[in-house]
Amino acid sequence: MSKRKSKSTYRNNLKARSEEARTVRKIVLIIILSILLIFIIGGYSGYTYIKQALQPVDPDSNEEVKVEIPLGSSSSSIGSILEKKGIIKDGRIFRFYTKFKNQFGFQAGKYNFTKSMTLDEIIASLKTGKIVKDALFKVTIPEGKSIDEIAEIFADKTKIKKAEFLKVVNDKAFIDKLMEKYPAILTKDIKNKEIRTPLEGYLFAATYNFYDEKYTVKSIVEMMLEKTSEVVGPYLDQLKEKDISIHEAITLASLVEKEAKTEDQRRKIAGIFYNRLDEGMKLQTDPTVLYALGKHKDKVLLSDLKIKSPYNTYEIEGLPVGPIANFSESSLEAIIKPEQSDYLYFLHDAEGNIHYAKTHEEHLKLKQQYIK
Description:
Blueprint: H1 2-53, E1 64-69, H2 75-84, H3 91-100, E2 109-114, H4 119-128, E3 137-140, H5 147-157, H6 162-169, H7 172-181, E4 207-210, H8 217-232, H9 236-241, H10 246-259, H11 263-279, H12 286-293, H13 329-336, E5 345-348, E6 354-357, H14 360-370
Antiparallel strand pairs: 1-2, 3-4, 5-6
Helix pairs in contact: 2-3, 5-6, 10-11, 10-13, 11-13
């Protein structure tokens, strides 16, 4: 009997030790996974922070800020001075960046910088001792412009010809390189064969400063895509939550941009577009007809609405195949946070006001009242 008890006790002890070992292994595994997760999150956060710190503080700012660099200043002290003046986002990143790029020989003096300058531009000024960093010229691209219109603006303001600009933005090899460089915003959707111009809608509306004559169409396009990436980047997680692809978002934002002028109008119209999509209705927005026609008209005719095109939202279901113009950040925000309403229709009167309706009957009455 005592032997049986001894064997039973041994088995129980062995079982207990085995269970204890399994528990320990589970705890160790959880700890290891937790540590790895912390490293991954920390690494991604660090990468994001550094990437943002390398960008200009305010790309649209032309205000000059006076900065004095004392004699014998190190890259660390220069970084601190620039950070305090609001010229760069982080002095430590400036110090690490200059070491990584092997940049040195900064000159003391009084400088005029702007918050729109890149780190490379700031470093170039500090090395050459160029006191004032003025743009040779500026080009302003308004919101709601197509690539064809953008090409005309650059042809008017620079030495670049419109045909040259359009040739480059439609070059397949160049587009492929841009997709590799900007994978977060340029997806395979832009290579749809039905799309008129792959980069349509992706060249952001802003004022661009040019500091020398060594510009090309490619450098201009990349500068504009950098701006798009900077503006769109903070909204990518919200777009994922709404289950909207970046291409769909920019397409819808371009429609909102063409239909509305104020923030309030944009949120209302974005909400109406979502309502129509939810109801299975066609979007039926006139700017897509004009884009399909390829020309501007003061008034869209009934015959125009029948044009066969993957852009014509009077003919197709859902969104057009791609954007019809560039967009403002306000329009992007509107499609992420649209105004909730029961409206399904809207129209513009001669004075630029927008009138909304819940039913087709109400919409027809508004037409009789405001459309002459």
